[in-house]
Description:
Number of helices: 9
Strand content: 15-25%
Number of domains: 1
Number of strands: 12
Order of helices and strands: HEEEEEEEEEHHEHEHHHEHH
Amino acid sequence: MIPTKFLNKIKFQIKVILRIFDVLMIYISYFIFPKYTYLFSTRKLYPPKKNRWTKKKFKPYLTFNKSKKKFKKINLIVKGSSFNLNDIKKFKDPTFLVGFTNTLKIKNDNIIYQHGQEDFRYKGRNRKLKLFQKKNIYYVNYNPFLAEFHKNDKVLFIEVVRKKIDPKKYFWPGFQKIKKKLQVMNKFKSIQKVKMVENIYKNYDIEEKLFAPSGSTIPTIYYLLSVSKRVNVYGWDFYFDKKIKEYNFLSFLKNIYKLGHDTKRSWNHIESCLMNLFFAYILEKRKEISLKGNLSNLNCQKKFISKFEKVIFK
Length: 314
């Protein structure tokens, strides 16, 4: 009898080969016929024509916040290598951290981040290290399962809902699976809950078969823009290890897809990367936002990034 581990290994390798084929087709279709790129997304994360907005009607996120902007300036820290965490010590304005599962720690007078066990980059955790805490720091959280990791922190919990066919009704993907876990958040007075609507695609499936692979940085930026006159974004790199303008074109294309990150996480790395490049490109044009990570000065790849319009617009 063939061992189960051996069979699972073979299944995984077949899955990887099929994924690589899809990725190659995404590259090819993106250049030649971008409006058909959705056909090759392994998890079907790009919309067919019927689920696309026209460019004029595109409003990716809708907020329920109708009041005046509370803040003059906000800092947003993304978990990218371009940002030195020690610089947080200098920040006096409200500073939000997104993508940080655990509280920052102090080691030899340096601020460090230790990846959680759910992350493939996990290398163990020293629980004896002192927590780094500051009054102006807030952790942005989208997952109630992670609430318990921030018992000692101020947390902004963003509930991203989507529209049903009836435009006046909304649904929260996966709510049935996590509604009991939501009760955990009620134990912590430091959690502030807000709600916003993801509107990147025109029609969403309640079973979550179709969703935009935007990640957590993009919706966070849109929410913060609704409450602040200016937002400075640090560390938004999406795994690029230097500024986009420092890559030659072939090297840039190569870095859009990383096999290890893809197959060890969510199998949507290239889809997410193209979407993050596009949003960074359009957000950078807004006067009230300043991008200081590696996803900045994207005019150098304007022609390539602009093709994404044909992927998500009619």
